[in-house]
Amino acid sequence: MKTKLLSLFLLLTTATLALADPGTIRGTIKDAKTKEALIGASVLIEGTQIGAAADVDGSFTLTNVPVGNHKIIISFVSYQTKEIPNVRVESGNTTVIDTELDEEGKALQEVVVRAARATNTEVAVISEIKQLKPIAVGISAQQIQKSQDRDAAAAIRRVPGVSVVDNRFVMIRGLGSRYNAVLINDVITPSSEVDTRSFSFDLVPSNIIDRMIVYKSGSAESPGDFAGGIIKIYTKRRPDQNFTEGAATIGYRNNTTFQTVQTHTRSGANWLGLWGKDQMLSSAFPKRSADFNKLENIERAGYGRLLPNSWALKNVNVAPDMRFALNMGRRFDIGNVAVSNLTNINYSLTNQRAEIGLNLYQNGLTANDVFEKYTDSNYARQSRVGVLHNWTFRFSPVFNLEWKTLFNQMGSTETVIRNGQKVVDATDELSYSERFENRSIVTTQVSGDHKLNDLTKLNWIAGYGYTGRWEPDWKRMRFQRETGATGSDGSPAPFRAVVPTDPNPIDLGRFFSKLHERVLTLAVNGEHAFGNPTDREPNKIRFGVYGERKDRDYSARFYGYNSVGSLAIFAGNLGSIFAPENVTGQNGGLTIKDGTKDLDSYQGINNYYAAYLSGDVYFGTKASLTIGFRGEFNNQQLHSVVVNEKKELVNNKLFIPLPSLNFTYKITDRQNLRLAYSSTLNRAEFRELAPFSYFDFNLLADIRGNTSLKTAKIQNLDAKWEFYPSTNELISVTAFYKHFKDPIESFLLPTGNGLAYTFINAGSAQNYGVELEVRKGFQEASSSFLQNITLVGNASLIKSTVNLGDVVTGPDLGGLIQNYNLAGITDKKRPMANQSPYLVNAGVYYADPHSNWQWNVLYNVFGQRIFTVGNMENPTVYEMPRNVVDLNISKKFRNQIEIRLGIQDILNQPVRFSQDFNRDGKIGKDVTSQTANADQDIRKFKRGSYFTLTGVYTFGKRTVIP
């Protein structure tokens, strides 16, 4: 199939080649002193109407230039105008002019000239996307500021074909986060999650972002492990001038702020996402459960008393959300070295409360036959500290050195009180989950840019990344009583704790886990141009190598309480049951058991090496073809200590060649046609391979890895038409097709009780669709109001199909790998998990440069997508569409003060997860009917509309917006 696709692509490429124009002049315009690009400099051929403005690189192109000698006039505000006579243009050739402008002897008043290259404006991002060889879309810091998006997760959902899951995980073209690669400053980021291959985009605050570019097609320069897209986040590099800026935000959320909630307490600096030593498991505990459980009840109870009695809940009144930011920029010289620094410090403390309806059904012949029904009172408080610290050293116009560091720490304190009934057993249920999670991510990198000569450039990046995730002392407890039972006085009977004989993840217990992941990265990239650049468009080659070493250590411990003899205290309150005087190990008291398995801890090593070579071939001035080849070698190892011996669970060594083609045809100066082909892959993550079993309390589901997973291979075809009516306008239509071999999918194990998920390789899959993007301004309108309006919109239609085949390979409940014959177990064909059939984003932006008023209205919706895969016993659960509308208003005063008002999720439609009872692949509107055609709500809640008020103050005068 690959050969046919390549042949078809080359045929299309050959058919679209065209003759060159009479002649072309191109070049760059820079500041004579700083060597920086002069964006917007005017270039004109004297005596003609042929002219252009320099783009983000200071580059310009004049096409359809008559053959002969011409005088070129170059001008820019506050710079001396330059005339270049006798510029010769030959038929079919390109003449190159690289020149510099000198500043005027006397600076103009009230004019600020930005010598630094701007990359964070809407015009700059559009220009960058236009010049890229692969198919890409993006969003600028300027647009993010207008939208008042708080983090990268909120900002990136404005991009075509992108949706966000759980307010932090990104899906591109309907494909889950596992199919996306994320890079920060061109270095692959580590996964921020333990259970899935995902990067949590809410870790990156929006005010440190320079721009985000989403690559939809592959290239030799980009990582090969993707199918949906490659997201490159670029943090701010250097300031235009010295400044200090402070911002404070207060937030109010419906159904949360000023409400009284129940939460658990944690020692330590929770407001910084930290915890006390008493929450850490003492090193005195035996390392293996077999050794621990051999001890007598009294000895094990002694260890139990080392665990703090921190079960009691308290009532608190939820305060408004608070966010603070401090931004500083400095530029100075050390000898002949130009130095700049950009520092950003962020802190936030936010709250979220929700009343979540949770229903489980019998799933027999009768619709809405309830098995269990609950209401979860969920309250979470999150804190985040973020620091960006970037240094730039300009040693000369041909050598730059940068040091970039990004640190984020997040802490989440979540309390869930589950109240309801287990209808099938006629019991009332009362459960508690008291969880604290801390995540720390650090990335630091040193990079250098070298211009070896006019034809050759070289850059390198050396980076280190660390991810830490801790769950210290996650406490869970379940109480039960007979439905309708009463005491001797006629009042409802008291609840009693459910005490299992052996520890399990649902009932009485305490869970501890920690993860440490370290990543070392080295990348070297080069570019060389061939031929005489003053004569014609130069052909170029790009080459490079990328190396990464990743080490992960994960460990988990789980302890459950047991009663010794009859225990009346289990009818007591939550705070008194586990007092030290009750944990005695004697008759009438408590003791503990270790429910940990050896495989609950693992060590992972991943060595990843890649090398690439790509070249540009120009067919006149209209058409270019980029041919690339990337080779990737990956060695993935997983180990665990079993009975004090190190056991190898996984050792996968694989080399995969990854060819790519990117063809661009310039229909006109403002229209391009792009065609792309790439071969990519998708590797399993450590957690998907590890046989460790993890219990998701909120979903009542068990999740375990599969050591037999294989690497998926993907073939990608893309075609895009793009039209740029002006520098900040865009219309584009993109079609794509993807074919997967051995795609990694979620699989619901056929168990008689409960939900247990694993990961499997399906036989094949395909994904295809079309995307539309429009950005429209009204600069030529007679109305000043319309001149200040910009319309932005994008929509995607997507279809996918997974063919599981007849047999899949995965673990059983005991962890033994086996083959599952799918006949009578599940559907062999279905949509891909998490794939949305449609996505729509729209926005109206208004900006008045005279009054400094800005406002925008934004809209987002996605189509129903599979949230959890089902089988014949348990129907598939879909996440349902919800329309989201945001409103943002801002006003600046004297260029030093800015006030912003934001209202997010005005409609406050419910978040709804419904199961497909009749298994027709669609969720009907009627979810209450008892007929066989009814579908059923599993989880449903409202997040609440969110109101924010922000004040920004710039110390000293500042006339340039970052």
Automatic annotation (TrEMBL):
Residues 135-229 form the TonB-dependent receptor plug domain. It comes from the Bacteria. Residues 1-20 form the signal peptide. Belongs to the TonB-dependent receptor family. This is Vitamin B12 transporter BtuB. Residues 447-904 form the TonB-dependent receptor-like beta-barrel domain. One of its GO terms (cellular component) is cell outer membrane. Coiled coil: none annotated. InterPro entries: Beta-barrel_TonB (IPR000531), Beta-barrel_TonB_sf (IPR036942), CarboxyPept-like_regulatory (IPR008969), Plug_dom (IPR012910), Plug_dom_sf (IPR037066). It is found in: Cell outer membrane. Keywords: Cell outer membrane, Membrane, Signal, TonB box. The keyword Glycoprotein does not apply. PANTHER family: PLUG DOMAIN-CONTAINING PROTEIN, TONB-DEPENDENT RECEPTOR-LIKE BETA-BARREL DOMAIN-CONTAINING PROTEIN. It comes from Dyadobacter helix.
